[in-house]
Design brief:
five-stranded parallel beta sheet; single chain
Length: 276
């Protein structure tokens, strides 16, 4: 099944009795995206905050993937079970939700999906909204096993810069990639990871939704070498990289990883090489 579901499909999944809807919205505004709707919530949704909660509290980098133990504990605390069918959305479109989807995939959960278009599409369909999250008083039994290659670190990236079988793709804009503009975060160098390819995430988006599978395949074919055996996706802080990743999965690519620290880590570390 596609990682993308429509509002109609979400409605149909309610009949299973196993549906869990997660709001993975982030507080900060992703560049070039539509304004966040901070008022409306999809009925029965539970908050999934990977910026402040489902993250590594010991890391100085933003929203880094937490340990297996921490993720499982937090997932159980919000009532997620091993057999839950999880649908994830965000409050501006299909922007913050792909990372949350990939986090669950990294824990080995198979029945997890992204609501294409997020809350924006839900409202466009004329469906009801509420202003409060669902109460999660009962704990779940979620127990995922972390797949270590789903999120990679700077050491992995550095060791694969010259690896002919690995391709690194950057979701930031061409101007940021080519060091034509300053980075939005203070103290971060401008430029890109050597030998990486620029594929701005907005090229894969039509308004608030992902483009059609046929369009995604066409766009990715021009950037992603099908002969590679490993693809690593980077961006500013590991959020929009997952947009390219989910598009790549839809297009049939395999062996996909997110560079978790992304440019926030790479650009701040003067020991790591850059190109401008």
């Amino acid at each position: 099944m596609s990682p993308i579901v429509t509002p109609k499909q979400v409605q149909e999944l309610r009949d299973t009795g196993r549906l869990v809807i997660l709001d993975a919205s982030i507080d900060f505004q992703i560049p070039s995206t539509q304004p966040n709707d901070k008022h409306n919530i999809i009925p029965n949704a539970i908050r999934f905050d990977y910026d402040k909660v489902f993250c590594d509290p010991c890391s100085s980098l933003p929203h880094m993937m937490p340990s297996e133990e921490r993720f499982n504990t937090l997932a159980r605390d919000i009532g997620i079970n091993q057999n839950s069918i999880i649908v994830i959305y965000d409050n501006s479109g299909t922007f913050a939700s792909p990372r949350a989807w990939w986090m669950f995939k990294a824990l080995g959960h198979t029945e997890v999906y992204i609501l294409d278009g997020g809350l924006t599409e839900w409202k466009n369909e004329g469906l009801a909204t509420v202003t409060s999250y669902q109460n999660t008083s009962s704990k779940g039994n979620f127990s995922g096993q972390l797949q270590i290659d789903y999120f990679v670190d700077s050491y992995f990236v550095l060791n694969n810069i010259d690896n002919s079988s690995c391709q690194i793709l950057d979701a930031r804009s061409h101007d940021r990639f080519n060091a034509k503009v300053a980075e939005p975060r203070s103290g971060i160098r401008s430029g890109h990871i050597p030998n990486s390819i620029c594929l701005p995430f907005m090229e894969l988006i039509d308004g608030h939704k992902l483009k059609s599978p046929a369009e995604l395949k066409r766009i990715l074919f021009n950037s992603m070498d099908p002969n590679k055996t490993q693809y690593v996706f980077s961006c500013g802080s590991g959020v929009t990289a997952a947009i390219i990743l989910v598009a790549a999965q839809i297009a049939g690519y395999q062996n996909l990883s997110v560079y978790d620290g992304s440019w926030t880590e790479w650009g701040a570390n003067t020991d790591l090489p850059i190109q401008g």
